[in-house]
Every structure is written in C-alpha cells, then in structure tokens.
Design a protein that fits this description.
With about 280 residues, the protein is an all-alpha fold. It is built from ten helices and no strands.
Length: about 280
C-alpha cells in the first residue's frame, strides 16, 4: 500500500498538512511492523515536523499524541527506555484518554498503542536492574503496575483487540516473566482467555466458511437438478412432437393411399360396367 502511494506522489509533495503527516506516520508504523526501527523513527519524526506548518490546534494535538505513542513503541523496542518514558509521560492524563468522544475516535490510532507501550514499559522497568533484588521488592513493584496492565487488557477486550492483547502478553511472558502469584495469574489467566476466545472465533469463522461452501454447493446442485429436469422436459416435448408428427404423417399417408386405392377400384368397376353396357 505504501509503495503504491509513493508511486502516485512523493509524500513531501503532498500539499495538505494533515494528509502529509498521516502518510509519514503510516510509513513509520509499517516500518515498526517490519522491525525497521531506524526508518520508523525517521518517518515518525518527519510526521511530527510536518505538523509545525498547521494552525489547527485541535487536530495537531491529536496527531502529535498519536505520533508520540508510536515513537514510544520505537524507543521501547530499541531499549531506549528514558525516551520511551518521556513520550508516555507527555500525554499521561490527557483528556483524550478520559473523554468518551476521544476514546472512541482515537481508539485504534492512540488509545490502544499508548496503553500497550505503557504496559510493556512498566513491566520492563520492574526487571531492569532487578537482578539480585529481594523477591519481596520485585513482587511489590509488580503489584503497583498491575492496574496499568489491567486497563490495557480491559480496553483490548472491550474493543475487540484480542490479537494485540495476545501479542503483548506473550511478549511479557517471554521477555519479562512474572514473579508474584498475582502477576502470574493476571498474565496466564488472560492468556488462556484470549486463546479460548480467538479459538472460538476462528471456529466460528471456519464454520461460516464451511456453511457457505455447503450452501453454495447445495445451491449448485439444486440449479443443476433444475437444469436437468428442464432438459428432460424439453427432450420429452421434442420426442412427443416428433411422434405426433410421424403419426399425423402416417395417417395422412394411409388416408391418401386408401383414397387412391378406392379410386382405382371404382375405376375398374366403372370400366367393367361400361364394357358390359356396350357389348
């Protein structure tokens, strides 16, 4: 998609500031998914730079928050935790995360990415430099950040972002395995719940595909049977027409033959009578 868009027009040549910033952001997000974090950072910073040309404060604030959220993901993935925290703290408590009208509009682009990175960051901070610390200290810190993770999990489940939740929980489980029973329960119980839900949804999807295939096959069979019956009726009608035609021609032939035979017989009788009359 990005390559196709670039073929149409270079992003730097886009006149509309909003569209140009959005284009660079999508380029950055695509690079994150490809794990090309250098390109991702460059593109997202460019998306931020473009916004300085706009006088529309409302959309500019939204776009800056979105870009910063994705930049925090880049900084987290590259281990630059101080810069990651700076991006997250910049928008902590902003009304866009609290008011329903913003949460609904910005759910995909801002709310989910922001809470995802904050959850991963908070978990990572528990284990950074924790080697050699007492178990009780690690457990206490895990309890402190559990609400952030619960908030992220609740948002994902309420809005149907189960795959995002699954990716995040698996990442935390593999890179930052929980220590306390409470944290383990939070991660493992939600992992199981996500697996079950995705499995059920997948089964429903497969069932719908199979049902659709079966229904299509049944429809094809019905249509084929109808065409066959129509073909049989047509052939029967043709055969009946031919038979009626043959019978009709036979009757005509018999009738003509009988008339001809009767004529010959009458002619012979007439000739015999005439001969007797004159003799």
């Amino acid at each position: 998609m990005i390559d196709a868009a670039l073929k149409v027009k270079d992003f730097d040549e886009i006149d509309n500031v909003k569209v140009r910033s959005y284009a660079f952001r999508m380029l950055g997000i695509t690079a994150i998914l490809d794990e090309d974090y250098n390109k991702a950072e460059e593109s997202l910073l460019k998306a931020q730079e473009v916004l300085s040309e706009s006088d529309d404060e409302l959309f500019t604030e939204c776009y800056r928050a979105i870009n910063d959220s994705w930049l925090s993901r880049v900084y987290f993935e590259t281990g630059r935790f101080d810069e990651c925290r700076e991006m997250l703290d910049r928008w902590d408590g902003n009304s866009m995360f609290e008011q329903d009208v913003y949460r609904e509009i910005l759910l995909r682009d801002l709310i989910i990415p922001y809470y995802q990175v904050r959850c991963m960051y908070q978990i990572a901070m528990i284990y950074e430099g924790s080697e050699g610390e007492a178990y009780s200290d690690v457990r206490e810190r895990e309890s402190e950040i559990s609400e952030i993770c619960k908030t992220f999990i609740d948002i994902c489940e309420e809005s149907g972002y189960m795959k995002t939740e699954l990716y995040t929980l698996l990442l935390l489980q593999s890179q930052y395995p929980p220590v306390s029973p409470e944290a383990k329960a939070l991660v493992f119980e939600n992992l199981q719940k996500v697996y079950d839900q995705l499995f059920n949804e997948q089964n429903i999807s497969y069932a719908n595909v199979i049902d659709g295939t079966v229904l299509n096959s049944m429809q094809d069979m019905v249509e084929a049977e109808q065409e066959y019956l129509l073909y049989v009726r047509r052939n029967r009608l043709i055969a009946l027409t031919i038979i009626v035609g043959i019978v009709f021609l036979a009757m005509i032939t018999i009738f003509i033959t009988q008339r001809k035979t009767e004529g010959i017989r009458l002619h012979k009788v007439f000739d015999k009578y005439t001969t007797r009359l004159y003799n």
